[in-house]
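User: Structure tokens for this complex, please. No commentary.
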Amino acid sequence: MTQYIIKRIGWIIFNLLVLSLIAFILIKNVPGSFLELQILIGQAGTMGTGLTISEVEKVRGVETEMMKRWGEDVPLWQQYLTFIKGLVTLDMGPSFRWPTQTIEEIIANTFPVSFTIAILAVTIAIIIGIPLGVLAALKQNSWIDYLVSALVMVVSAIPNYVMAVFVIFLFSFWIPILPTYGWGQPKNYILPVLAMSFGPIGSIAGYMRTSLLDALKQDYIRTAWAKGGTERHVIFGHAMKNSLIPLVTILGPMISHLILGTVFVEGMFGVPGMGQYFSQAAGSRDYPLMMAQTVIFGLILMIMNLIVDIIYFFLDPRIRVSRR
Amino acid sequence: MDLLLSIDNLNVYFYRSEGVLKAVDGISYNLHKGEVLGIVGESGSGKSVSVLSIVRLLPANGKIVDGSISFDGKDILKLSMNELQDIRGKDIGFVFQDPMSSLNPVITVGQQVMEPLLWHNLCSREEAYKRAKNMLGMVGIPFPEERMKEYPFQFSGGMRQRVMIAIALICNPKLLIADEPTTSLDVTTQAQIIRLLKNMRSELDMSVILITHNLALTSNFCDRLIIMYASNMMETGGTKDVLNTPSHPYTRFLLDAVPDIEVEKELVPIPGTIPDLINPPEGCKFHPRCPMSMDICRTEKPPLFPVGDGHYSACWLCGRE
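Assistant:
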């Protein structure tokens, strides 16, 4: 097992290198630059979003520092190696868009927020989604099943920012008990987490229903009934154990997308998460942040998949024993 | 001998989108204590459904529409779910056809063998462990204690079927139902499993229903045979009587289709195909394939005519005299 995990971590590092190289080449070849964009916006000064002259100066200063650091005069491969060095030593320098903050600071400040929200949302989705799916499967083709299936479809189809409006209406307007905006207190977590958990509730409930229905059709379930099992023995002792295995596979990608894909919800509730920063990185050609974003997303996805595989290892004896 | 199981005019229908399928069309038989009954027929002849009905283990679209089943003095069709669960696995043990899929892949073999004892609250966990270990040894699994910790995928097909038999027998049932227990196994393993069933029957003193489409397996194990075709009983009687003096044309066809290593003979396939059970033929279900069919066969279903001592045949040829 330890050997397997070490091997997997080796692969993660290798994949990250390949990923960052591809991203580096693509990003370096995209037309336009951060400075050009800012000056364009600055020229449209009346829009109120541009930078003041002193800010342009500051940006120029930062860019010069970046130029020195990545060295536009040195070949691309050397620039790439410098980036990797920064990544390994956790010294990636400041962002273009937020020049007073280094990339490391941005990630250190925002990642815990996004991660906590994502984990809470998935936890709620598991707690609500699994029983819903089980209920629908056990009462297949009854009104409960149809109701759950309809709910699954609705919450999976509605984007989370619309759900955010819904929970704001529900808990801040009709029943005014929660704040709509702000950060710092535990209660500020409630609405964003709720808004983000609806989609995962839908997919987990739907997945659980299908997977349990499939398990209940298996021959070993008939054997369990023939052995004199009650519903509790057969469904929770025999069928659930098998139907949870495929469910685990969707949790990894689900968590990684929740961590990074929260831009709208963060915006609506004023959550200081990663999404805010990363959503603007690409648009403003903020190379350092874009690179960091790519690597972080890849890293989270691969770590989640590794965790899923480890959980799989404990759930499924077929994998556990054959790897021993 | 005392009566253990009595089935009277059992009718089981399957409700499909194409129509109603009569899977069991009015069959009746008795099983005495200690007796071994073989039910023989082609796939889809209703033999499995007829025995699954004994513990009401039919798929959701299957329904027992008529008849009565009496097991050990209890009217099965009137029992509550709890009373039924009390019989399943304890008084009636089941061995299914495919040992690959009939065992739960993520639960240890030991746990699966112990479950009937634990579910019926027959003994403590420690006692169940001991009994499971002994039972696995009895059915011929070497190193039972080590193997109890393993999972089904670590067992060969024949070994898995032995595990299934251990599960079926762990509560010392009054009746063992083996539904094509050897179909998915290779020939040498088939013989071992039948020999094992035979030994266990005499050791544990129970009744057995063996379902098979292989007549050869029945000859030195079963006391009595039922030949089924298209949801109906064609012939029933003592094994020797049925095999030596078959009186139904279908049984004769079946016997002609069994290869014999000692006598060189031509294997004769039965002409035609099994009928569509949603729109079955009128009269005798076998008449479209029967070379001896008469006018009456096409219109009226033959009752079981006595042709010997406890030997009956559902054929108009036998009722002519």
